[in-house]
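Q: For a teaching handout, I want to show students what a protein-ligand complex looks like in token form. Below are the inputs, and the small molecule is guanosine-5'-triphosphate. Please produce the holo structure.
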Amino acid sequence: MNQQNETQRPAKCSGCGITLQTGNKELPGYIPEVAFEREPVICQRCFRIKNYNEASSVSVDQDEFLHLLSGIGEKNALVIHIVDLFDFEGSLISGLQRFVGNNPVILAVNKCDLLPKVTNWNKLRNWMQQRCKEHGLRTAEIVLVSAKRNQGFERLLETVSELRGQRDIYVVGATNVGKSTLINRLISDYSDLEQELTTSRYPGTTLDTVKIPLDDGHYIIDTPGIVYPWRYSELVERRDLGAVMPENPLKPAVYQLNEGQTLFFGGLGRFDFIQGPRQSFTCYISTTLKIHRTKLERADSLYKDHRGELLTPPVAADMDKLPQWQRHEFRIGRGSQTDLFISGLGWIKVNGTEGAVVAVHVPRGVKVLTRPSLI
Ligand SMILES: Nc1nc2c(ncn2[C@@H]2O[C@H](COP(=O)(O)OP(=O)(O)OP(=O)(O)O)[C@@H](O)[C@H]2O)c(=O)[nH]1
Ligand SMILES: [Mg+2]
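A: Here is the structure, written as tokens, with guanosine-5'-triphosphate included.
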């Protein structure tokens, strides 16, 4: 009897995919003996995330992950690549085409609930198509979804059933884009499975692949997120994640600025309007991050004297945990509709059409770029 129980024990955690072990509490995959009697069987870390919202801190071996990704090219698979609308360029896997071979890719742009009221979805989709083209990513379809608010799923499912044939579905993407949340939505609405993948606001929740059986004998496969070091979400302390990652729809903050004015985003970043006629700039950043306006000539000393206090987060104790700031200057051309995109922090839309010289200061390594305006 006992032996039979042994053999029926699942080897992997059904929440995050890690190989289970009962030997060492300190190592990933630990599960107390008694927890094998619970249904579904999950590791202690998943149990804590689910029940106490605890921060997890296990890092996934990136080489192993890239190996997994490149394995998809040799399989007959449908790939759903999820990106985070709020961090589009920061979460796009630009080398994906190399990995997936000839398998079709659906680009699911998640968290579209974060956008302020959208009037023209087609225009958005075209914008995304354009960005994919620039990154050499061929997509069979682009779908806008919100896994959290259950938006866009009809179209996603239609596309999946059109393209799937007799294939497994791999869900891939950077950390924290909502892969597991999206699969949970599919499981709970479209199957009788009890399984629930672990999700959390902290990047790096899923630790290994999780295969979920579908009715037809094939699988949908959750994967660990790729860690991209250029995203604020990977750089800030866990306690500050809530400040940079919006949970509610963005409230665009419009600033009429003269040249020589500066905006601070808490103590996490800074925007300078260096040169150009008076014009407005719209900040699409989390409403939890306070914007502080000052004169450019005073900005350096303000930061020096008030970082960690007036300019927070981060708090003073965490200030030096972030890389030193690096300044990026941009010349915005006349007549262009441009966003200044900062990976994981949001973007600033330049509304003037007369041109401007601007700069942003962000921790070294953060991806900053200009792009045609999203909105
Ligand atoms: N606003 C918003 N948040 C979402 C949406 N989908 C997921 N999230 C949130 O994004 C965070 C990450 O979700 P997960 O499903 O754990 O993301 P993941 O891609 O599986 O992350 P890893 O396992 O770390 O790679 C959680 O806080 C989710 O609640 C969405 O549609 N809208
Ligand atoms: Mg996950």
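A: Two things your students might notice: Residues 179-180, 205-206 surround magnesium ion (ligand 2) (CB under 6 Å). The mean pLDDT is 92.
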